[in-house]
Amino acid sequence: MTAAPHVTPVPEILTFGAAETARRLRACEFSSHELITALLERIEDVNPRVNAIRVVLAEQALSAAREADRRLAVGRPVGPLDGVPITVKENVDVAGSATTQGVAALAHAIAPADAPSVANLRRAGAIPLARTNMPDFALRWHTDSGIAGATLNPWDADLTPGGSSGGDAVGLATGMSLLGVGTDLGGSLRWPSQCAGTAALRPTLGRIPQAQSIEPTANPIGLQLLDVHGPMARRIEDLRLALGVMSAPDPRDPWHCPVGPAYAPARPRRVHVITEMDDVHIEPAVLAAVEHAAGVLEAAGYEIHDEAPPGLDEASAAWAGMMAGDARRAWPTLEQLASAGGRRFMESMFALVPPHGPDAYAELFTIRQRLGRSWGEYQRATPLILAPIFAGRAFAAGSDLDGSAATRHIVDSLRATLVVNLLGLPSVAVPTGLVDGLPQAVQLIGPRFGEELCLQAAETIEAAHGKILPINPWSRP
């Protein structure tokens, strides 16, 4: 499949990452106004094909760009991202814009204030340019929303772009975004990155403050422990820059942990590589990506070790119990707002995970604490785990609605991803190039607040592969 003739090549001004763009803006190589104008033209040209961007904040963004250009012209940027546009998933508040959660009933749920992550980015000079598509209430691993329909994978329209942060991943892959803000309840930053060929950072729970200004402003305790906000980008250096900005304190998050930006355990840089999981078939392309990344790390001086981290199977089951338990309690209200696809998927999820009584639900938190302690002790000696994000390649778009067997396959394939959410650990998704014309990626899981350790290893893997993004939809390099 090739791009339609009238889709223009990606202009050079949109080929840089967010950090490099910020450097070029400070050097006055081009203006923020020129950059945003080019992005608006790119969105107009490409988005009708992939449906990644739902709302464009053109007027506000151009006004903010003019202000940034005045500061940059006299060498007084307000922060490291001054003049750099960003996109934001539609379950993260942007003041004056609707936080739709992907459902039509919330089309006019206008946020009175930025979420902490967005507020921190805006204070650093970043400019919200657009809101990105997501599935209903972020409760699918495929991006198809009740308000905007499906987002298409720019590599192959028949395959999923991932979810739930699929809109941002596709926007980044196709040159419509330089830096995205997404969320990760069960791999929602990392899985779309595998599908699109982008990078993402799921931070340690509490590292990036989060809060919402539209009722309900508080989630059940299980979801509080599983969900985080995080950056998405095309380059690992962009994730590091965004983390430093987004993790600034905010009083609206009572559980925020103000950890310094450069924490990383000392050597030895030991890595365990996950190449098999009980009763899970890891497809050859995925396995090859993991093994190749392991070889890159070993050649760079990392020590590869065989001892596996504890309790992957138990962690995945506990994650499913927590997520489904809290979602089941809220579902009578959410179901009335969800689309047919959203309702169908959650029916399968609930069939897969039976209801827990109060004692069984409470036991899940005991399991979480026990496994968290075991992982903490394990990671003192072997701080990094290199693992698949999803055990297979991108599945057929919409096939996640094929009943509980399909849902079970997805949950099993995400086993090494879901343990990260259960235990609140950091993880970086890093692309590993193309296999048979489709992108592949791996994840690096670190100890609590070990984001920098993950980022360093991810940069080593990134350096071994050429740039593949941005692309025109369905035009493979």
Structure write-up:
The chain has 477 residues and is of the alpha/beta class. It has a single domain, classed as Amidase signature (AS) enzymes, CATH 3.90.1300. Helix content is 40%, strand content 13%. The protein is built from 15 helices and 13 strands. Strand 2 (85-89), helix 4 (116-123) and strand 3 form a beta-alpha-beta unit. It is globular and about 60 Å long. Mean pLDDT is 95; it is low at 1-5.
Instruction: Specify the CATH homologous superfamily.
Output: Amidase signature (AS) domain
Count of DSSP E strands?
13
| Structure annotation, total helices | 15
Radius of gyration: 21 Å
Helix and strand succession? HHEHEHEEEHEHEHEHEHEHHHEHHEEH
**Count of the domains:** 1
Main sheet properties = 11 strands, mixed
Helix content: 40-55%
CATH class: Alpha Beta
CA distance, first residue to last residue: 12 Å
Structural class: alpha/beta
Which sequence of strands runs across the widest sheet? 1-3-2-6-8-7-12-13-11-9-10
What kind of assembly state do the chains in view correspond to?
A: single chain
- What is the CATH T-level topology? Amidase signature (AS) enzymes
Shape: globular
Mean pLDDT score, rounded? 95
Topology readout:
Layout: H1 18-26, H2 32-50, E1 53-56, H3 58-73, E2 85-89, H4 116-123, E3 127-132, E4 144-145, E5 149-150, H5 166-173, E6 180-184, H6 190-196, E7 199-202, H7 221-226, E8 228-233, H8 236-246, E9 270-273, H9 284-299, E10 303-305, H10 312-334, H11 340-352, H12 358-381, E11 384-387, H13 404-413, H14 415-423, E12 427-435, E13 438-445, H15 451-463
Parallel strand pairs: 2-3, 2-6, 9-10, 9-11
Antiparallel strand pairs: 1-3, 4-5, 6-8, 7-8, 7-12, 11-13, 12-13
Helix pairs in contact: 2-3, 5-6, 8-15, 10-12, 10-14, 11-13
